[in-house]
Amino acid sequence: METLVHSSDPSKAVSEIYRVLKPGGHVVFHEYDHIDVTKPPPGCPPSLVEAVARINTRSGMPGNQAFDRGVLHRIMEEQGFVDVTERDLSDNMRPLMRLFYVVAYLPYLLICLLGLQQWFVNTEGGVQGYRALKRGYWRYMVFTARKPAARKEGEEGDGPRQRRGG
Question: In the chain, which end has fewer C-beta atoms inside a 10 angstrom radius, N or C?
């Protein structure tokens, strides 16, 4: 389930999840990540960069703007999680994203012709999301991690992170 993309402050959300998770507990996030739209790679169509920016701005996914490649992995480690892993599930999502694309394509053309993209962000997301996924600019990822087990007195090993400054 995508959760953190809907957060206005993903770092704070991960911090709170860490806080309430039992020591030794595991967490799994299914989230999107994408190229940094402020520095698109050569050959990336400007229309796609603009569409991703519009989707980030207009959708109910404010956290998605922050999820350039590697960002969520870094946030999880910064909050104290260990054994952070990520796996690209884009190939598994491709058939569903293609279906969204096929269903949304004709309405999307009409919406663009009439200049109504701001009112139909999910339609634009279905079309442009598939285009970005197909080109490798947008990925669907699974992230897993563990909160370190609490140490018993005198034991060495990983323990809970130490907060600084209150």
Answer: C
**Cα-flanking dihedrals φ and ψ of residue 41, to 5°?**
-70, 160
Cα 150 from Cα 74, distance rounded (Å): 22
Beta-strand relationship, 138-146 and 82-88: antiparallel
Task: Indicate the Cα dihedral angle 53, 54, 59, 64, nearest 10°.
Answer: 0
pLDDT tens series, the chain, 166 aa: 578 888 889 999 999 999 999 999 999 999 988 888 778 888 888 888 888 778 877 887 778 778 888 999 999 999 999 999 999 999 999 999 999 999 999 999 999 999 998 899 889 988 988 998 998 888 999 999 999 998 666 555 554 455 444 4
What is the three-class DSSP state of 25?
coil
Compute the distance between CA of residue 149 and CA of residue 159 in angstroms, rounded to an integer. Answer: 6
Cβ count near 95 (within 10 Å): 8
pTM metric for this prediction: 0.80
Helix (H/G/I), strand (E/B), else coil: 115: coil
